Amino acid sequence: MIKKGSYILGLTLLVLVVSSGFITVEQEKIEGFHIDDNEVMVYHVPNQFENEDVGIRVPLVGKTFFGFAQKMAYKESRGMLHLVNPYGYMGKYQFGKSALRTVGIYDFQEFLHNSNWQDKAFKALIARHKWILKKEIEKYSGRIINGVEITESGLLAAAHLGGAGSVKKYLRSNGRRGFRDGFGTSISSYIRKFSGYDISHIKADPEAKVNLE
After folding, report:
1. What whole-number distance in Å separates Cα of residue 28 and Cα of residue 6?
2. Do the Cβ atoms of 197 and 64 come closer than 8 Å?
3. Long-range contacts of 89-98 (CB under 8 A, 24+ apart)
4. Alpha carbons 199 and 153: distance in angstroms, whole number
5. Distance, CA of 124 to CA of 113 (rounded, Å)
6. Is 198 left (phi over 0), alpha (psi -120 to 50) or beta?
7. DSSP string of 73-141, one letter each residue
8. Each residue's pLDDT tens digit in the chain (213 positions)?
9. Are the beta carbons of 151 and 185 closer than 8 angstroms?
10. Which of 150, 159, 154, 92 has the alpha carbon at shortest distance from 125?
11. Burial 65-83 (b: 16+ CB within 10 A, else e)
12. Nearest 10 degrees: CA dihedral of 185, 159, 178, 140?
């Protein structure tokens, strides 16, 4: 009888252990890192005009040249003075070495640590592009191309992105011949983003250079 009772007791314990493996365990939820059963995750895929603005917060500085420069710095590098991108473009405005030589800067290491040089280089390049594109600015300002109004500041921003020659091709082809940089950013997007800034005080100058003093 004792052996039989031990057998029955052991069998009962075995059944309880096995069955416990099938008991549903409630999942632990960490607050802030889950969605409830009645919630839906919604994704927004930006269009061609939105995808370049993700994460950018530009200071509210109005449609002045300072606002223009600040927005350009944020768009190009998030305002990072020392940034060198995978294509070798440098500083907060992302200058190539050839452009820097054009405006009189040859010490690239100093350039990366000198905010004053970078601001002056940006202004000098704007003056040069303004001279190169003076006919286009006069002829096309106010027109609508690819749904975007053409303005002086928009064209000069586009020239900073792809060069004045690319801007001329874009305008003369009525927007059919576009340019995109290595990251896929288009001339048209820059014309739109930087539209309507007052940069009239920057005089067109084909020989504009940086005063390094």
Report:
1. 39
2. yes
3. 91/118, 91/121, 92/118, 93/69, 93/118, 93/121, 93/122, 93/160, 95/121, 95/125
4. 7
5. 18
6. beta
7. HHHHHTT-TT-B-TT--BTTTTB-HHHHHHTT---HHHHHH-HHHHHHHHHHHHHHHHHHTHHHHHHHT
8. 545 555 555 555 555 544 544 444 333 332 322 233 333 333 233 334 334 444 445 555 689 999 999 999 999 999 999 999 999 999 999 999 999 999 999 999 999 999 999 999 999 999 999 999 999 999 999 999 999 999 999 999 999 998 999 999 999 999 988 777 666 788 999 999 999 999 999 999 999 999 987
9. no
10. 159
11. bebbbbbbbbbbbebebeb
12. 130
Which residues have C-beta within 8 Å of that of residue 93, sequence separation ≥ 6? 69, 72, 73, 76, 77, 118, 121, 122, 160
Q: Which DSSP letter does residue 32 get? A: T
Cα distance between residue 197 and residue 200, in whole Å: 9
Measured between alpha carbons, how far is 10 from 66 in angstroms, rounded to an integer? 85
**Tokens at residue 93, please?**
């405005």
What is the value of pTM for the model shown?
Answer: 0.70
Token reading at 65: 């040249």
Q: Please identify which residue in the block is written with the tokens 């940089």.
A: 181
